[in-house]
């Protein structure tokens, strides 16, 4: 009972920040079932505060997050724009089982089922999709889809392994990304993925370059520099030999 009460408090704080926002929930599961979780929240500046600057209002909300024990492992950054601000929340997990305890994932879904064996991995959300916390109860006289200022929650999961099957709303086979759309129109929805042990090396290489772009640029610059200097030396040597 204590756990449930804490979850309701946590969701309450979470929803206060998200009112009027679009939420992109991005996950990368690598070939070793390690997980990177990244939540991008687009917030209209006019709903942050009327009494202080968007920057100060957003900083206060971030400080509020840091006081919640469940969020202490998250890295939070923000970018304030002219009309909208971006809140970026990140965390990494050493294995899929630990990711199943993600407080943000559990804000969205009642339970997570994971099956791992020598042949495949199954990831599935089970139980209730926490629709009421975001949009209100369907039994209420006001239509939740009209009353709520939260319109869309987009969940994207990228795999480094080959997919076997899923119930994704949208499939990007080239980048191995699977997308689910949650909105006030859908009161019951779940995520299901089953993937094998076969690796997508094209995705792994792209991911490595993206995550190590600074190192890649430095190494590439050095290699190109060596090749250019080598070519100049070679051309000069050939010219000298002709003389």
Account of the 3D structure:
- With 243 residues, this protein is an alpha+beta fold.
- 37% of the residues lie in helices and 34% in strands.
- Strands 3-4-2-1-7-10-9 form a seven-stranded mixed β-sheet. It has a four-stranded antiparallel β-sheet with strand order 5-6-11-8.
- A hairpin with a 5-residue loop joins β1 (22-29) and β2 (35-44).
- The radius of gyration is 23 Å and the shape is extended.
Question: What would the keywords be for this entry?
Answer:
single chain; 243 residues; alpha+beta; seven-stranded mixed beta sheet; extended; disordered N terminus
In short:
The protein contains 8 helices and 11 strands. It has 243 residues and is α+β, with helices and mostly antiparallel strands.
């Amino acid at each position: 009972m204590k756990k449930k009460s804490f979850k309701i408090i946590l969701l309450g704080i979470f929803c206060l920040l998200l009112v009027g926002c679009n939420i992109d929930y991005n996950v990368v599961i690598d070939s070793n079932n390690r997980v990177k979780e990244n939540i991008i929240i687009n917030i209209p500046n006019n709903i942050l505060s009327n009494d202080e600057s968007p920057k100060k209002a957003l900083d206060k909300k971030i400080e509020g997050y840091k006081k919640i024990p469940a969020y202490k492992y998250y890295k939070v950054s923000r970018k304030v724009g002219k009309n909208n601000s971006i809140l970026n929340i990140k965390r990494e997990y050493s294995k899929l089982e630990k990711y199943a305890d993600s407080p943000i994932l559990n804000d969205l879904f009642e339970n997570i089922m994971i099956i791992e064996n020598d042949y495949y991995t199954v990831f599935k959300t089970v139980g209730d999709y926490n629709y009421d916390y975001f949009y209100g109860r369907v039994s209420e006289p006001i239509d939740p889809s009209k009353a709520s200022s939260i319109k869309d929650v987009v969940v994207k999961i990228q795999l480094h392994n080959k997919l076997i099957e899923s119930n994704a709303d949208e499939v990007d086979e080239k980048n191995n990304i699977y997308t689910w759309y949650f909105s006030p129109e859908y009161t019951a929805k779940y995520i299901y993925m089953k993937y094998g042990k076969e690796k997508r090396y094209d995705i792994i290489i792209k991911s490595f370059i993206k995550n190590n772009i600074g190192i890649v640029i430095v190494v590439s610059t050095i290699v190109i520099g060596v090749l250019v200097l080598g070519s100049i030396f070679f051309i000069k040597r050939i010219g000298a030999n002709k003389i």
